[in-house]
Amino acid sequence: MKERLKSLLLLLLVAGSLVQSYYLIYRLPGSDTAAKATNTYIKTDNMGPQQRIENMVYPDKMLIHMGEGKHTVFYPNSTFYKLIYARLKGRSFENFQRESVENVDWNKIRTEHPGIELTFGAGIPVSLLERVMQIQPDSLFGAERINRIWIYNAPSESKTHALFFSTQGDVMYEAAKVDLTVQDVQQHVDFGKNWIPYSMQNGGAYYVPEKPLDVVEADLEIGSYTVAQMQQSLFFDPGITRYIREKDGSEIYTDSKRSLQVRQEQKWMSYTDPAAPPAGESSDSKDMLAAVDFVNEHGGWNGEYRVDLSSVGVGQNQVAFQQYFGSYPVLDTPGFHYGKMKLDLQQGNVSTYERSLIYMKPGQSKQVKKLPAGNGLKPMLLAISKDSPIEDLYPAYLPKLDEGKLKLAPVWAVKLANGQIRTIR
């Protein structure tokens, strides 16, 4: 009997010791952080809304070719742009065949064949296009980056041509099976008949409207994310950061590994994490997804954006998010950084993160301005092209801080071959 009591008592002591050890390890204050990965950031307050990559993959413009040398242009968020793009996203494209772009008179096709040309700036990985369009997976085509989709009808042919142009410049892919009829394409093209006519310039490099373009000028009420909010979002332990003030007036906060530089006069920040650990293999689409996730977790989105991607070195990509107001992009200028969010990624990890601290608040005043066109615009473009060939022309907004408000002034943005952006009012 005594032996049984001793055994029972020993069992109770062992059980009590195990329970006590459990609470010591898993239930003491602060023990949650010990179970987390060392690179987990402190949860911050909700600053801006989160976003999905699918909402940021769309063409920067839609060129409508109506035949007989007639053209027009639809820009993002305009009625016909949204209608046509929504319809195209619901149609399927299959059986891709790789072809050369040489030995084809593209100017003739633009001039004579009714069609729709979608442009994607520096290009979008096909793996991301598959998220927004009904594209049949293809091993060869799936590895490409596409900067242009061209859908058109050819005379006396009963099928529609759908071409996807690679950023390599000399390669395109034609979808042998397209869920679009000749009548479908013609209906989309007909939306442009009563729109502002555009004339093709420099072999289709850019288009000039023949009538002045009405664009809204806006004065916006704004707020600003605080340095404390960004510190809480970006540092593992904001309490150990040091403050340094530079001679140029910028403020630097660092924990000896990472740094946050803030320019208060421009409401602009730049975060650097040079010790970002490599994550192994990466790709364009994975970098874009990683960049979106990073912004979702560290600041959120302060407006509407379109995604862009540029290679900056071996194993390194820069993902840029171009901000839009209405149908047109907001320019990022040397004097006032605002219109772009930029992230550099190495092996899928963010090493630098640049963004504006400004966000829009309810309350704005608007008035319509006219951008020059036709014979009033062409001489100005000719003068600019003497410095460098013109690669693109598009309406945009020039941002400016004015008495605590954000003023967005409409301009023509002229993109030159040397990389410069000039503006015309």
TrEMBL record:
Q: Which Gene3D superfamilies match?
A: YycH protein, domain 2 (3.30.310.160)
Q: Which domain of life is it from?
A: Bacteria
Q: Which InterPro entries match?
A: YycH, YycH/YycI_2
- Cite the Pfam families for this sequence: YycH
Regulatory protein YycH domain segment(s): 3-421
Q: What name appears for this protein in its UniProt entry?
A: Regulatory protein YycH domain-containing protein
Species of provenance: Paenibacillus cookii
